[in-house]
Design a protein that fits this description.
Helix content: 40-55%
Strand order of the largest sheet: 2-1-3-4
Distance between the termini: 56 Å
Number of helices: 22
Oligomer: single chain
Strand content: 5-15%
Number of domains: 3
CATH topology of the largest domain: Rossmann fold
CATH architecture of the largest domain: 3-Layer(aba) Sandwich
Structural class: alpha/beta
Shape: globular
Bound molecules: iron/sulfur cluster
Length: 406
């Protein structure tokens, strides 16, 4: 922890100093909303750190302690804060959007995770995840050569199992849709859509490795470097100049950590590609006669900037009525399943997912549609407890249902 405290400075310190402790950010935090535990509110997470910084680096902070106006921050306080940060923050960034002082709370908490990791203060489960990714190239610990195993289970897969030597587009499937049974249906739906539109694409199979997002979220960005290099070389070998993702976290990781090294390569979320294919009249969609509430995934919308493409896709399906919630686009809700929290505090994620599913069920739509394998998995579980008759689908799944040839 000493090493960690020595690292708090510069941009992070200026952000911490700007906090007026108004508490507005608390209402935005999904973990606070679900638990009502004041220690989980962003203000608490920041306040403890701010006191630690002030007491160590500012005259006022030192004075407060020597005059007994403030208790000194102890090692145990910091370890408690470390636990809060990793077990009750999905890095959803909702708090930043509401802060009247414009404090980038989400990125600040993210940066501080980096500092904690540098100081070796990372939860044990995330250390195990790092070892798993290093050994198996995926977060689940499945054999790396089973990465495209989901294709074998499709009803009528092509002879080449979608693994082509050269293609115009690479579909980067990601760990969750490669291995989690619920999310594998998203990968299946997306390849059906690409086939229906006649897209010249490939998946990377055993040459695809974890994008590195879970390591970066754990503050261990440097450990993602080898993975980044492997994925980039697999894409170059395919000859593709477009990479498409069904996972918003993979897309974000590629945009922020890969893109500079891949000049001329277009990185798209599945919703952006499907919207383009619809506009180009390459997909024929049939009437579904259903109502839908759309959930904006944090890494796709608030952080990733994609708000319109999924709505364009949903509106293009005949017979689909879009029923929106007030908490959408930049202020969209959080499923709780991001930022590695599920590996540290699965119960906390379940609580958030149920609270979020409850809000998303309010417009009374037939189905909840999102655009992220993790949101789909987590919210489907949450919805079972709240409104079991409401279906939860990824957007690729509703589009696949609407395909005239499906
Ligand atoms: S909303 Fe901003 S200024 Fe207010 S407590 Fe939260 S971080 Fe501090
Ligand atoms: S990033 Fe999200 S989960 Fe983390 S403190 Fe802010 S609102 Fe809460």
């Amino acid at each position: 922890m000493e090493a960690f405290l020595n690292e708090v400075g510069g941009w992070a310190a200026s952000q911490l100093e700007a906090c007026t402790r108004c508490g507005i950010c608390a209402a935005a935090c999904p973990f606070y909303a679900a638990s009502k535990d004041p220690q989980v509110a962003p203000i608490w997470k920041l306040d403890l750190l701010r006191r630690a910084y002030e007491q160590r680096s500012t005259l006022l902070g030192k004075l407060k302690v020597s005059l007994h106006l403030e208790k000194p921050v102890r090692q145990a306080d910091l370890e408690h804060w470390r636990d809060l940060n990793f077990s009750a923050c999905s890095t959803c960034n909702r708090c930043s959007v509401t802060c009247p002082m414009g404090i980038a709370i989400g990125p600040l908490l993210h940066e501080l995770r980096d500092r904690l990791a540098e100081a070796g203060a990372v939860p044990e489960s995330l250390m195990r995840m790092r070892a798993t990714v290093e050994k198996d190239n995926n977060v689940f610990g499945f054999p790396a050569d089973e990465r495209a195993g989901w294709v074998d289970y499709m009803d009528d897969p092509p002879d080449d199992l979608y693994q082509r030597q050269h293609a115009e587009v690479v579909y980067f499937v990601g760990c969750v849709s490669s291995f989690a049974p619920r999310a594998q249906r998203i990968a299946e739906s997306f390849v059906h859509i690409l086939d229906a539109a006649g897209v010249n694409f490939t998946i990377l199979g055993g040459s695809e490795v974890c994008c590195g997002f879970p390591l970066r979220a754990a503050g261990m960005k440097a450990d993602a470097e080898a993975l980044i290099r492997k994925n980039i070389s697999a894409v170059w070998a395919s000859g593709a100049r477009t990479v498409v993702f069904t996972c918003p976290a993979c897309r974000l990781m590629w945009l922020e950590e890969y893109h500079e090294r891949m000049p001329g390569v277009l990185l798209l979320h599945s919703t952006e590609m499907i919207a383009d294919l619809i506009e180009a009249e390459r997909l024929k969609l049939k009437d579904l006669q259903t109502s839908v509430t759309y959930h904006d995934p944090c890494d796709l919308a608030r952080t990733g900037g994609v708000f319109e493409a999924p709505r364009t896709v949903l509106r293009a399906i005949p017979g689909v009525e879009l029923r929106e919630v007030a908490e959408r686009r930049k202020s969209g809700l959080c499923c709780g399943g991001g930022g590695d929290v599920e590996m540290v505090n699965p119960l906390g994620v379940k609580q958030v997912a149920q609270a979020t599913a409850n809000k998303l069920s309010q417009p009374g739509a037939d189905m909840l549609v999102t655009a992220c394998p993790q949101c789909t998995r987590v919210l489907e579980e949450g919805m079972k407890k709240v409104k079991p008759e409401m279906k939860v689908l990824d957007i690729t799944e509703i589009v696949a249902r609407a395909l005239e040839v499906s």
